Amino acid sequence: MERFRVIGGARLCGTVKVSGAKNSALKLMAASLLAPGKSTITNLPDIADVEYMAELLTRLGCEVSINKDKSSVTIDVPEKIAHRADYDLVRKLRASINVLGPLVTRVGEAEVALPGGDAIGSRGLDFHINGLTDMGAKVHSEHGYVIAEAPNGLTGAAITLEFPSVGATENIMTAATLAKGVTTIENAAREPDVVDLGEFLIAMGAKIKGLGSHSIEITGVAKLNPTTHATLPDRIVAGTWAFAAAMTQGDITIENGRADHLELPLDKLVAAGAVVTTTENGFRVKMDRRPTAVDIATLPYPGFPTDLQPMVITLNAIADGTSLVTENVFEGRFMFVNELLRLGAKIQVDGHHAAITGIDQLSAAPVAATDIRAGAGLVLAALVSDGETIIEDAFHIDRGYPDFAAQLKALGADVSRI
Ligand code: UD1
């Protein structure tokens, strides 16, 4: 099992380049199933999840070729595709649930294993299932699989989500592209990943209005055509670098970073004392003092992203002052606080609130990554600890941060993989 070894103390300075968003790329790949023929997705991140999704699409009958430097993939989708996504692959990546909508709308049936995914609390599928049921699918679960049937196709419906779920918005939106008539999704997710997917679908010939708003309207068409699309840059990776700069009192220019997708996190960093400026093709975060503690509450976009919550807790752990961080999206996301406590952080968790008292410096110790973002948060914590921190289960970090150790090293950190 690979581990990260980090010696704390370095000020991170320099330039990093952000590649395509994991949470977008995987969904674009899944949505390519909607159109027979060759779709190409560029600006891919070089992460294992892309290979797992490629394997899943191959098993469904597609010919998938990833280019040499792993930055683009061409998916040749046959007229006739299979409809079963097996547990051995689905358990490796939660995003495989995104084949459910495309399969049921194109094939008339889908059998998708119930995903595992990150250990960040219960992640239901009820909104996905209710949405597809409203569109006329018969859905039930059996032997660990969700089975959806719509032999005569789906019919547009008016759907209101209980919570603006990213995954449910995506599955319903993709399913609606080939349904008969108009589907509306109220209380839809507004995340840039959802907009990116919607733009990909529009390029395929889908009729979609209201992307990026609470209300999305999709008018079904008879057929979609393959297309080529560049994945949008990863806002969570860009945000992680922004927090790394602030915490290490560094100066990082984040190339391809979209400041407009990170308004609230960057505002919070400014409140913590950082100077944030936009550059020609990204933004720069500079900090020359100990950060001031900031309160945050995670919320669906454009609220503060839950995926950056470990980074803000880690910043507050070494900040000047006390703070309150509230998690409103995933109830299990505070699990990594136990690891931060091992580094000497002063944090009290009560339900979905964490009260943090900043201390001058964390104290290096062995810790374990529990999910992608917790893993990245622990790397940042290790950077501001005295001595050597070993982070077990580095594979979690690799799932979201291509080439993380090499990029950290290039910025001046003492990091290696062991
Ligand atoms: C996606 C992202 C994840 C991010 C999250 C929120 C991917 C692969 N993952 O996850 O990194 O943290 O958005 O921005 O893109 N819920 C239900 N029933 C449902 C669906 C969701 O109760 O049918 C709940 C979940 O348990 C959670 C909340 O709704 O508490 C939000 O989940 P959702 O937005 O669906 O997140 P994901 O799409 O799983």
UniProtKB/TrEMBL annotation:
Its chief place of residence is cytoplasm
Keyword Cell division in the entry? The reply is yes
The EC number(s) given in the record are 2.5.1.7
- The question of whether Magnesium is a record keyword is answered with no
Enumerate the catalysed reactions.
Answer: phosphoenolpyruvate + UDP-N-acetyl-alpha-D-glucosamine = UDP-N-acetyl-3-O-(1-carboxyvinyl)-alpha-D-glucosamine + phosphate
Q: Name one GO molecular function term.
A: UDP-N-acetylglucosamine 1-carboxyvinyltransferase activity
Please give the InterPro entries that the UniProt record associates with this protein: Enolpyruvate_Tfrase_dom, Enolpyruvate_Tfrase_sf, MurA_subfamily, RNA3'P_cycl/enolpyr_Trfase_a/b, UDP_GlcNAc_COvinyl_MurA
Q: Check the record and name the Pfam families matching this protein.
A: EPSP_synthase
Q: Ranges for the Enolpyruvate transferase domain?
A: 8-407
Compartments annotated for it: namely:
Cytoplasm
- One annotated Gene Ontology cellular component of this protein: cytoplasm
Pathway noted in the entry: Cell wall biogenesis; peptidoglycan biosynthesis
The alphabetized UniProt keywords are: Cell cycle, Cell division, Cell shape, Cell wall biogenesis/degradation, Cytoplasm, Peptidoglycan synthesis, Transferase
Family matches, as PANTHER family: UDP-N-ACETYLGLUCOSAMINE 1-CARBOXYVINYLTRANSFERASE
* Membership in a protein family: Belongs to the EPSP synthase family. MurA subfamily.
| Protein's name according to its UniProt entry | UDP-N-acetylglucosamine 1-carboxyvinyltransferase
